[in-house]
Amino acid sequence: MESIYKLSSKDERIFNNNHLVVIPSSAKLYMSEKIPYVFRQNTDFLYLSGCLEPGSALVLSGAGGGHHTSTIFVRQKDVHSEMWDGPRTGTEGALELFGVDQSLPMQELGLFLKSFSKSHSKFMLWYDFTHPAEPEVHKTMQGFLANTINKVWESPKHLLHRLRLYKSPSEVALMRTSCKVASEAIAVTMQDSHPGVTEHQLFARVDYECRMRGAETLAYPPVVAGGTRANIIHYISNNQVVQAGEMVLMDAGCEYHGYNSDITRTWPISGKFSSNQLELYEAVLSVQSDLIKRCSNFPSLDSLFYEMCDLLGHSLQQVGLLPRNLNKDQLSKVL
């Protein structure tokens, strides 16, 4: 809460105000009437609370330099529901597990907000009205805003994402593990690939290998593209056969305790490059190696992108894929 206050304190409009931050969980979504999708938590809520359950909300309240309070609202324990969907944390478990000052039943969120409004004539409300994550929380927030004289609110996303930008040593360790898991999974998938394998089978293999190494799921729908399909940027159909002599591109990563990796690799499905494939592969690899070295100087992403265009354009000219008479500006447009 103190970090949120510091990040927002340059805004004179809210500098002296009390703050009320409401972060909902994700909702449980269904692919058909009774068949749910695999649940994925709202990452802002997960970052601040550590709670993996739907139907929840975290409320932070306080003022700069003063006392701050964290309250988590969760579903109550229910024998019938837990028999179908598994155990719930409940208010007692939430207080013990999530490091908050208090935990309350989800049904009491509206009363809590009403009480806060009565005791604070002015306050800054931080809630994302434009991208509601949980319908019941959103309905409560709409009613709260309609019935309070306070009309000053803003989405907390930009502040939360600034907080999340700087990683702790523990977070860095999780990110490294996520990359290690995905890297090993892709390497095994490469080793076991062969002409005639389907893109879907390669998808299944990398998914399996990631999960067997501790990942909860893949980070995103992977691109597994054989032959010329690799030129389709967001190809996720992954339903064709990879023929002998073709290259296969895989863009995949995994989610490991909330932290995601993103890796792209291309390899010959037959196990050996043709001379043309090898020449192009080494040209791209050389560009990548140069760019990694330049990262030690902490360049901006934009400057790194333009350097990539320059290096890659020159390399493609060297192998004869682009005309040698194109200048730097022309190359950047082509790429």
Automatic annotation (TrEMBL):
Entry GO terms, CC: mitochondrion
Pfam annotation, one family: Peptidase_M24
Keywords: Hydrolase, Manganese, Metal-binding
SUPFAM superfamilies listed in its UniProt record: Creatinase/aminopeptidase, Creatinase/prolidase N-terminal domain
SMART domains: AMP_N
InterPro entries named among the record's database cross-references: Aminopep_P_N (IPR007865), Creatin/AminoP/Spt16_N (IPR029149), Creatinase/aminopeptidase-like (IPR036005), Pept_M24 (IPR000994), X-Pro_dipept-like (IPR052433)
Source taxon at top rank: Eukaryota
Gene Ontology biological process terms, A to Z: proteolysis
The protein's required cofactors: Mn(2+)
Domain Aminopeptidase P N-terminal: start-end pairs: 10-135
GO molecular function per UniProt: manganese ion binding; metalloaminopeptidase activity
Transmembrane segments: none
Record flagged with keyword Thylakoid: no
Signal peptide (UniProt feature, chain positions): none
Family: Belongs to the peptidase M24B family.
Protein name in the entry: Aminopeptidase P N-terminal domain-containing protein
Lineage, top ranks: Eukaryota, Metazoa, Ecdysozoa, Arthropoda, Hexapoda
